Structures are given as C-alpha cells and as structure tokens.
C-alpha cells in the first residue's frame, strides 16, 4: 500500500461522509455499521462511551463509485474459488492495491471532524454493515488501527475500507452466500482510552448460561494482553440482581502491555513492562469497582433487552465502554 492515501477527484454524488455518535442508534446499521450503530445507541442511552464519529457507509460507497473500479473488483472476486487459499490471497492483494485514492470531500470531512474532536490520538475501527448480527458475525474480520493521529487518519480509514477484501473476509462471505459488493463498511473514529485496566464483561455466564450472573474479566494495561492469551485475567462472577460478588479468581500478572504512539496504521508499538509486587498478585478491580462495572453492564443489557458481550477500559479512575454486541453463543 502507498504510505499515504492519494486524495483526488471530487465525488459525483453528494453524500454525508461523517456522523457523530449521538446522531445514530441501533437502527442505523446501514449508515454506521454494527459497531458504529451500537456505540451511538450507547451514547444516546447515557452510557460512558469515549467521544467519536463515524465515516459513513455512504462515504465508502461513494469512494467505490468515484474510483470506477467496481467492475474490475467484481471480476476478480467472481474468478476466485472461495476454498482456495492461494486464489483468495492473490485476489485480496490485487483488490486492495486498487483501492488507493480517497475523494477530496471525504478526506476533508474526516480531518475536519478529527480536529473538532480535539486532535488527540484515536482508534480507527472497521464497522461492517453486516457485522454483529444474529445471522452473521463479521467480528474481527476487518481492521483496527490504534493511536492514530492526523497525518495517518485518512490512510487508516482507507485501509479499513480495503480490509473488507482481506482473504478471510472474502472466504467468509463466500461460505455464507453473501454478495461481496453488497456489504458496505463504515469506520468508527473514537478517542483513544489509554487504559490502566481493561477487559470484558458478559451479562450471561458464558460457560453455564446463567442469566442471573454477570462475568467480568480484568487485566492491568491493555486488553490485548488477555485476548492474546499471554495474560490470564482476573475473573469475577457478580449477582446481576444485587451486584454482590459471588466468585472471584485472582490471577498473578507479572507484566502488562502498554501502548506508545504509533508511526502509522498497523505499526503500533506496544511494550511489555513489569508489574511490581504486591500489585502483581492483587485484585485488579476493587469490590466497589466490580459492582460499579457490573451496574453499567446491567444497564446495557436492560437497554438492549438481551445478553451483551461488552468491552471496557479504565483511565483515570473512570470506566468507558468501547464496544457492546449481543451474545450469540453460550
């Protein structure tokens, strides 16, 4: 990929490239994608979500239309055997190399919203219009870029669009019989939480299926440490009705993952640092914080009326919700 997205030619049809979180809700998946629509819904419900905006699916569609490349992309996809890894890889590379030029109006709108938000580092996350749905889960198939600043923001948005054509995403749509070019993608641009502690919360027990329990996992530092399996998180089982702690399993964490500035999309420089004693063997969240986080998780489930899988982060003593999605499997 070029180091910087080329900004070129005006759009043929006017679109609204950017919407703020509070302008969308759960019914706006077609505009904001699954992730963006859920974040907007959480903001409208008064839940603690870091500020941000969404580069709309209409902007992606306008990007494709302005490029004039859709027939070429369709031809490449039609020639692929969805079960042949080599063909998938070749087609993916060829398509993503085509998607470079970002229309002027879209780039200007994205950078303008970023400046309006304060110009701090942001997380840039893909938000496909078919993800986090009951009948299809696209979670993890598209790109996320962290600690992005103004000089890389347009690149990161463009690379999120292009990640719709990663080999695994093409193969998934092929298996599910989903038309490749009918899936649009939005992009979430959200202020980074430089988390001191982070984790997930499930408003149904993911192993037993008990709907009367909230299960919270917590690590020191960035949540990627737990997702990767390198660090075993603390686990707390909370009574959903009373927010009393029914179980606690404290893990020894001798190192934590922290994030420094990134030099470009996909080039995050995470670093492991030691956790000193006695913090390494201590409970990651206090009992009061566990109850507070359990209460937030319960509010999210009550708002949606269904069990939720929630990602949380803490910075400066304040909890933030960075994602929520329905629990599709137990």
What this model shows, in words?
The chain is α+β, with helices and mostly antiparallel strands and 330 residues long. It contains nine helices and 15 strands. Strands 11-10-9-8-14-15 form a six-stranded antiparallel sheet. It has a five-stranded antiparallel sheet with strand order 2-3-7-5-6. Helix 4 (85-98) packs across helix 7. It is globular and about 60 Å long. Residues 1-7, 132-140 and 262-266 have low confidence and may be disordered.
Blueprint (SSEs and pairs):
Elements: E1 7-8, E2 18-20, H1 29-44, E3 52-55, H2 57-67, H3 70-78, H4 85-98, E4 102-103, H5 104-116, E5 122-128, E6 144-148, H6 150-162, H7 167-176, E7 185-191, E8 197-202, E9 213-220, H8 224-227, E10 234-239, E11 245-249, E12 255-259, E13 270-274, H9 287-304, E14 308-315, E15 318-326
Parallel strand pairs: 1-4
Antiparallel strand pairs: 2-3, 3-7, 5-6, 5-7, 8-9, 8-14, 9-10, 10-11, 12-13, 14-15
Please state the overall shape, judged from the principal axes of the Cα atoms.
Answer: globular
- Note the total helix count: 9
In round numbers, the mean pLDDT is 88
- Characterize the biggest β-sheet: 6 strands, antiparallel
End-to-end Cα distance, whole Å, is 39 Å
Order of helices and strands: EEHEHHHEHEEHHEEEHEEEEHEE
Sequence of strands across the biggest β-sheet: 11-10-9-8-14-15
Q: Percent helix among the residues?
A: 25-40%
Helix-strand makeup class: alpha+beta
Radius of gyration: 20 Å
């Amino acid at each position: 990929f070029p180091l910087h997205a080329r900004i070129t030619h005006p759009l043929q049809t006017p679109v609204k490239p950017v919407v703020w979180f509070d302008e969308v809700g759960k019914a706006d998946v077609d505009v904001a994608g699954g992730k963006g629509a859920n974040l907007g819904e959480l903001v409208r419900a008064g839940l603690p979500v870091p500020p941000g905006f969404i580069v709309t699916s209409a902007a992606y569609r306008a990007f494709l239309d302005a490029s004039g490349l859709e027939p070429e992309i369709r031809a490449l996809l039609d020639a692929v055997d969805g079960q042949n890894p080599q063909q998938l890889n070749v087609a993916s590379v060829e398509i993503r190399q085509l998607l470079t030029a970002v229309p002027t109006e879209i780039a200007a709108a994205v950078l303008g919203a970023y400046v309006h938000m304060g110009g701090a580092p942001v997380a840039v996350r893909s938000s496909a219009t078919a993800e986090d749905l009951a009948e299809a889960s696209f979670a993890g198939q598209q790109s996320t870029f962290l600690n992005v600043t103004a000089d890389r923001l347009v690149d990161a948005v463009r690379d999120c669009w292009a990640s719709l054509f990663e080999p695994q995403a093409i193969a998934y749509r092929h298996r599910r019989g989903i038309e490749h070019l009918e899936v649009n993608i939005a992009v979430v641009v959200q202020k980074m939480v430089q988390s001191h502690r982070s984790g997930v919360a499930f408003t149904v027990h993911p192993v037993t299926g008990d709907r009367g329990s909230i299960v919270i996992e917590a690590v020191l530092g960035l949540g990627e440490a737990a997702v990767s399996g390198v660090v075993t998180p603390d686990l707390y089982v909370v009574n959903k009705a009373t927010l009393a702690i029914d179980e606690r399993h404290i893990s020894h964490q001798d190192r934590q993952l922290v994030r420094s500035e990134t030099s470009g999309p996909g080039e995050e420089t995470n670093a492991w640092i030691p956790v000193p004693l006695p913090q390494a063997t201590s409970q990651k969240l206090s009992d009061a914080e566990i109850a507070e986080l359990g209460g937030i998780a319960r509010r999210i489930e009550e708002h949606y009326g269904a069990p939720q899988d929630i990602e949380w982060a803490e910075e400066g003593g304040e909890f933030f919700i960075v994602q929520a999605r329905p629990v599709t499997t137990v």
